[in-house]
Amino acid sequence: MSILVTGGAGYIGSCAVAALKEKGYEVVVVDNLSKGHKQAVGDVKLYIGSVGDETFMHKVFTENKIDAVMHFAAFSLVGESMLHPYEYYNNNVAQSMHLFHSMIEHGVKNVVFSSTAATYGEPEENPISEETPQHPINTYGQTKLAIEDMLKWFGVAYGLNSMSLRYFNVAGAHPSGNIGEDHNPETHLIPIILQVALGKREKLSVFGNDYPTKDGTCIRDYIHVMDLAQAHILAMEYMLKNNCSDEFNLGSGGGYSNLEILNAARKVTGCEIPSVFEDRRPGDPPVLVATSEKAERILGWHRQYGIEDIIASAFAWHKAHPNGYDE
Ligand code: UFG
Fold first, then answer.
1. Residues with Cβ < 8 Å from 314, sequence gap 6 or more?
2. pLDDT band at 283 (very low <50, low <70, confident <90, very high)
3. Which of 86, 110, 189, 291 is least surrounded, with the fewest CB atoms within 10 Å of its CB?
4. Active site residue: 11, 47, 140, 222, which one?
5. Which residues, including other chains, have CB under 8 Å from residue 293's CB and lie 6 or more apart?
């Protein structure tokens, strides 16, 4: 069975490619390499181009018999999305629309879609379930919700099956230590902490210590990228078997404050990791924790990794690749 992975040269996409290969699937990657890294794809067939270019995608779909698509290709930085909404709507919503149109034209009717906790905005309840109302508070989350909605209507009209997977905070690296997070600029907490541990940054700035949480810092729900990759495979297999659509939260069911993450990283790395408190970062909700009970119950998804595994695997990747893929 052959799976097309869009954004397969990116952080999460490349880990999904590795997991698919390990499970015996044939994989084809489409990536425009605007953010992704060719080296992350490994020995898989890579088409360099845009998922929204229907002429290009016609070539991909005619040269390969694709059974399902995992759609990761997107811009995903909240702050950037607030400055560049046109780019976000264009790259995320418009390109996805053309991709889905190409799929339908070529009779490919199954897609696993990379959605986000950012579709919930500042939720009215924690933990967040799939029934929690989705009210994004930034352009990024809004574009992902627009795509979820588009998939529903494309399902009704064209019979396109979709699994929308709403990820919480993804971190960690492939167990080989050779596939991991390489963003430029880096904005995420765990890689930044590890850059401090490795002496690549002087200190961690903790954004806000006056939130209504146990230690005043924000609480997030962390999920290992390889557990996330497994969830994609289970969702795809479920969709293909049952010819259906659905949506799932993917988190751990528990949260860690930013200070707890910092202390866990100090323990795992054995490094001091200096830190200072700074003002709140605009747009950060105090608490985002998922219940993933639905994915466990319906997909049979079981997480293998806890927070120390997440940090340890990310640390192994960063130590082996201090300059990311550009070594
Ligand atoms: N943080 C710091 N210092 C830093 C970086 C982050 O204190 O240098 C804090 C943030 O303020 C936040 C927490 O660490 O409280 C986590 O921040 P991240 O940037 O690592 O992750 P976010 O929770 O902001 O974002 C994640 C995904 C987004 C998704 C969002 C959903 O990365 O793609 O969850 O709200 F949109």
1. 171, 172, 173, 180, 181, 190, 191, 194
2. confident
3. 86
4. 140
5. 129, 253
On the question of pLDDT at 284 being above 90, the answer is: no
CA 227 to centroid of ligand 1, rounded, Å: 19
Ligand 1 pocket mutation pick from 78, 142, 214, 280 by most atoms within 8 angstroms of CB: 78
Determine the average pLDDT of the residues in 250-259: 95
Cβ < 6 A, ligand 1 pocket: 76, 78, 116-118, 140, 169, 187-189, 192, 205-207, 218, 220, 258, 281, 284, 288
Torsion of CA 270, 200, 224, 232, to 10 degrees: -160
The angle at the Cα of 136, spanning 131 to 137, to the nearest 5 degrees, equals: 145
140 catalytic? Reply is yes
Residue whose CA lies nearest to ligand 1 atom number 18:
188
- Residue 220: HSE in the Cβ half-sphere, 13 Å Cα cutoff: 22
**In whole angstroms, what is the distance from residue 1 CA to residue 7 CA?**
19
Question: C-alpha 127: how far from its chain's center?
Answer: 19
DSSP symbols for 166-184: EE-EEE---TTSSS----S
* Percentage above 70 pLDDT, the chain: 100
- Average pLDDT for 50-71: 98
Q: What is the pLDDT of residues 90-142, one digit of tens each?
A: 999 999 999 999 999 999 999 999 999 999 999 989 999 999 999 999 999 99
